[in-house]
Amino acid sequence: MADERTGTIEIQVDEIGQLFDMLDPFPFRERDLDKDAEEYIVSWAREFPRNAPLRILIHLPKEEAEDQAARDVGPALARYFQYRAETTSRDLKELFRVGRLSLAIGVAVLAVCIIAGRIAVRAMGSTELSVFVSESLLLLGWVSNWRPIEIFLHDWWPIARKRDLYKRLAAAKVELAPR
Predict the structure, then answer these.
(1) Residue 28 or 86, more confident
(2) In what order do the strands lie in the sheet with 2-3?
């Protein structure tokens, strides 16, 4: 459950280990977050305004709250979401790298298609066939730029939003609420 006015994401667990992937061999503080727990936290975080600070309130039994693992959960969550922000940033950089390469190829193909179309018109005259060939080459040239245009206009936004959300979650204040 989440409190929409305060940016608080509430989680109820019986033991703190439920938040983390039990198959992960690393020590508690470096463990990956359980996929269901991550999905729950991220989905609630998306519900809040992008500029709202976040708080994660974990309800758990009193004896669990006194355990060292419970006291380490804040830094563990911050480390996990910081790692996710960094990997998402690398994904974004890779997308832009692919976009730049695709754009270079697309512009080169467009230039070749424009030149080939003009050569076809000169070689065949202003016939229907030469216009067809010229227009087809021009179309091919523009279609070759479809992917870079898609990358630079649309594809990067969701990745940047996800990265920013992970950064907000890494900065979220984590509180324990013993019950």
Answers:
(1) 86
(2) 2-3, 8-12, 55-60, 173-178
